[in-house]
Amino acid sequence: MSLDHLISIRDLEYREALLLLDTAEQMAATQSHRVKKLPTLHGRTVVNLFFEDSTRTRISFETAAKRLSADVINFSAKGSSLSKGESLKDTALTLQAMGADAVVVRHSSSGAAHRLAHAGWMELPVLNAGDGTHQHPTQALLDAMTLRRHYKRDPSSPEVEPLAPGTDLEGARVVIVGDVLHSRVARSNVDLLTLLGAQVTLVAPPTLLPVGIEGWACDVDYDLDHALASEPDAVMMLRVQRERMSAAGGGFFPSPGEYHAAYGLDRQRFEKLAEKTIVMHPGPMNRGLEISAEAADSPRAVVVEQVSNGVSVRMAALYLLLAPEGHSHD
Q: Is the pLDDT of residue 173 over 60?
C-alpha cells in the first residue's frame, strides 16, 4: 500500500480500499483460531492518543494492536500534560522520542490528525480514529466490510460465504439516516461506499444537513418512508449527537418524540423493510430515539458484527502501515 498514513477515505484509491478490506477478511479468518495472536508486529509500539472520549474505538484499536503482538500505550488527554497546556507539537515530539512506531489519534478538532501527520513534527504513521466532524476512516471500512459480507447474500441462509478478493459494492443501495451534520461517520461512508460502487441516500431534516451537501456524491431525501421504499440493501441509523447539539445551543428538532416519529427506525418502519435489508448503527445507540428496541435487537441488526469487523479492519490498517511485508504493496 502506497499510503504512509490513514487520515481520510479521500486519500484512498479504489484498489487501496479493496486491499484494506481484503486484508481485513484475512485477519478475521485468523480470529477463529484458538490462539488469536499473530507475531506480525512484535516489538512495535502503538500509541492510542485520545483527546476525545471513545471507549469503544480505543478498545478496538488496542485489541487490534495486541492481536498483532504490538505493545500499546494508551495516552489520554485528560490528566496529562495536554490538559496543562502542552501543545500537539510537543506531544508529537515526545512520542517520537519515546520510540513509538505508530500513533492512533482521536481529536475533537477537524484536521487534527492531518496536522499531526504532515506538520513535520514526527515521522510516524498516523491513523485517524475520528477528527471533529471530518473523517472516521476505519469506521467506514468496517461498515463496508460488514455490508460486503451481506450484499447479494441469501438472507434466509445462515452461512456467510468467503468473499472473493476484490469484491466491491457495485449496485448496492444504502440509506444513511439522521444527524448527518455532526457525523464524521456519514462523511466517511459516503466517500468509501461510493468509491466502491454503491449508491448512497442521506435522509435527515434540513437542520441536520451540512452546508454544501449538494456537492456530496450522494442523493438527499427528507422523507424516510420514501427512501426506505426503494428497498435498500442496508439502512444505517446515525447516533443523534445530543452533546454536540447542546454545545451549539440546540434547536435542531422540536422534540425527541417528533424526531423518532419522522426519522426513527420504529417498529412499523422496521417491519416493512425488505427481507434483504440489514440494519446498521455506528454505536452507541440511542434506543427509542433514532432506533427502536425491536430493530436494534433483531437478527437483521448487524451492530455486533460491525464491532467484530472493526477489530479486523484496524488489524489490517496497522499491518499494512507497519509490517514491512504489508507496506511493500504498490
A: yes
* pTM listed for this prediction: 0.93
pLDDT 10s digits, 79-119: 555 555 568 888 899 899 999 999 999 998 899 999 999 99
Binding-site residue ranges for L-aspartate: 84, 184, 239
At residue 80, the pLDDT reads: 58
pLDDT for residue 267 = 96
Distances (CA, A) of 62 to 37, 129, 318: 13, 12, 11
137-302 — its CATH code? 3.40.50.1370
* Residue 233 zone, left/alpha/beta (φ > 0; ψ -120 to 50; rest): alpha
Q: Which long-range contacts (CB under 8 A, 24 or more apart) does 206-210 make?
A: 207/181, 207/251, 207/252, 207/253, 208/178, 208/179, 208/180, 208/181, 208/182, 208/252, 208/253, 209/180, 209/181, 210/133, 210/180, 210/181
Binding-site residue set: 56-57, 84, 106, 136, 139, 184, 239, 283-284
Which pairing describes strands 173-177 and 126-131: parallel, antiparallel, or unpaired?
A: unpaired
C-alpha cell at 15: 484498489
CATH pick for 5-135+308-326 out of 3.40.50.1370, 2.40.50.100, 3.40.630.30, 3.30.70.260: 3.40.50.1370
> Per residue in 16-72, pLDDT tens?
999 999 999 999 999 888 888 999 999 999 999 998 878 899 999 999 999 999 999
Binding-site annotation, residues for carbamoyl phosphate: 56-57, 106, 136, 139, 283-284
Q: What DSSP letter does each residue of 173-222 carry, written as one string?
A: EEEEES--TT-HHHHHHHHHHHHTT-EEEEE--GGGS-TTGGGSSSEEES
- At residue 136, the pLDDT reads 97
Buried b (16+ CB within 10 A) or exposed e, 72-86: beebebeeeebeeee
